[in-house]
Amino acid sequence: MQTKLPINSFVEPFVTVGNRVYRDHLKNITLYIRIKLNDYHSGN
Question: Which domain of life is it from (predicted)?
Answer without folding.
Answer: Bacteria
